């Protein structure tokens, strides 16, 4: 029996990347998982790869009615919804269109907030009555470390993710007493397909900057989603959990000063 056996989960933006990895982790813990994405063929292929416990719905996170239909389809298929992972976000095109305040077009800014922030709000609004009627549930939103500091690019993305973190606090405060816990993950560098395709040298750069031995993988985030969705996290509500290999903890020493495994005394 997995920690999520008997639970029904919805993962948005699940055709590839972190969403697909998270869906796979949730299935591994025993959940029935519905994968939502705008890329219909790809999300169907991903769900098929995950087996009978997974199914797919094609939807558009920028369209309110489509988001509502996605949640309704989960209820139609399974009769309940226990876990909502709001993961959908604009990523691939953002590398070229979402840059600085002066250069980012307003229509792109509006679309980014609509997909990255508003879609999660709509999904939660639609899912909450079902969770409450079912005795409770868990919402896990996806922010980013970009939500907490400025940078030379991705201004709309960072602002949208800051909104996601704040939305998490409101959902937790307003519905925690209905046994619906809401938490948020703020990933650092995660080597998804889109990141690898759009950021040259990202693997080497991440390792050079992190106080750790590698950059993140999709399953690193999926494992935290599964934890927050489970009873292991029953007293965790309204938190933003940074998963970044220590990237926001501080600057590591030069690589040649790193302690090699197996050398030197072992701390008591």
Determine the CATH topology. Answer: Rossmann fold
Number of strands: 7
The helix/strand class is alpha/beta
Q: Numbering strands along the chain, what is their spatial order in the largest sheet?
A: 3-2-1-4-5-6-7
Number of domains: 1
What characteristic shape results from the CA principal axes?
A: globular
Q: How much of the residues is beta strand, in percent? A: 5-15%
Structure explained in plain terms:
44% of the residues lie in helices and 14% in strands. It is an alpha/beta fold and 268 residues long. The chain has one domain: NAD(P)-binding Rossmann-like Domain (Rossmann fold). Strands 3-2-1-4-5-6-7 form a seven-stranded parallel beta sheet, with helices on both faces. Strand 1, helix 1 and strand 2 (32-37) form a beta-alpha-beta unit. It starts with 7 loop residues before the first strand and ends in a 25-residue tail after the last strand.
């Amino acid at each position: 029996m997995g920690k999520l056996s008997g639970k029904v989960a919805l993962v948005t933006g699940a055709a590839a990347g972190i969403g697909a990895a998270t869906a796979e982790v949730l299935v591994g813990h025993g959940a029935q998982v519905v994968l939502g994405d705008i890329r219909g063929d790809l999300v169907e292929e991903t769900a098929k790869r995950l087996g009978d416990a997974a199914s797919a719905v094609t939807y558009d996170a920028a369209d309110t009615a489509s988001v509502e239909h996605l949640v309704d389809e989960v209820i139609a298929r399974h009769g309940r919804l226990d876990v909502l992972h709001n993961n959908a976000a604009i990523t691939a095109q953002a590398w070229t269109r979402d840059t600085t305040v002066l250069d980012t077009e307003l229509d792109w800014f509006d679309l980014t907030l609509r997909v990255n922030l508003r879609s999660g709000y709509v999904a939660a609004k639609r899912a909450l009555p079902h969770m409450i009627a079912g005795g409770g549930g868990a919402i896990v939103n996806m922010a980013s470390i970009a939500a907490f500091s400025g940078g030379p690019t991705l201004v709309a993305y960072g602002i949208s993710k800051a909104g996601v973190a704040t939305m998490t606090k409101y959902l937790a405060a307003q519905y925690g007493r209905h046994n619906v816990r809401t938490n948020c993950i703020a990933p650092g560098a995660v080597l998804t397909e889109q990141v690898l395709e759009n950021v040259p040298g990202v693997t080497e750069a991440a390792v050079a900057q992190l106080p750790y031995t590698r950059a993140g993988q999709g399953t690193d985030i999926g494992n935290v989603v599964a934890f927050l969705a489970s009873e292991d996290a029953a007293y965790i509500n309204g938190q933003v959990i940074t998963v970044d290999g220590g990237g926001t903890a501080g600057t590591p020493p030069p690589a040649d000063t790193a302690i090699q495994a197996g050398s030197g005394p072992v701390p008591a």
